[in-house]
Write a structure and sequence with these properties.
globular, DNA Methylphosphotriester Repair Domain, 4-stranded mixed sheet
Length: 95
């Protein structure tokens, strides 16, 4: 049964689009960070009420990366380390 619910997701082009499927990752559009939906750091900010204005959602990791976002240093620690090493080496990081 289709409830007709639509979710706002950020696309690879950085534009919001509507989807019938929920996003699998959340992000901060101001800091250009993406992470898991259960990220303790993001959820602290959500509870404070200060995060909703900058919160975005992505279909998947490839979309977040294509939109220019980097992995969260809290909930995606290993990917963050690989991203940081690539940036410091002057390399392009593709996840």
């Amino acid at each position: 049964m289709d409830s007709g619910k639509q979710y706002k997701l950020l696309g690879a082009d950085g534009k919001i689009y509507l989807s019938s499927e929920k996003g699998t990752l959340g992000g901060n559009k101001k800091l250009k960070i993406y992470g898991r939906l259960d990220c303790p750091s993001a959820n602290r900010w959500v509870k404070n009420g200060t995060y909703q204005k900058v919160r975005v959602f992505f279909k998947d990791e490839a979309t977040a990366i294509a939109a220019g976002y980097r992995p969260c240093g809290v909930c995606m620690r290993e990917k963050y380390k690989r991203w940081k090493a690539a940036v410091e080496a002057g390399e392009t990081w593709n996840g």
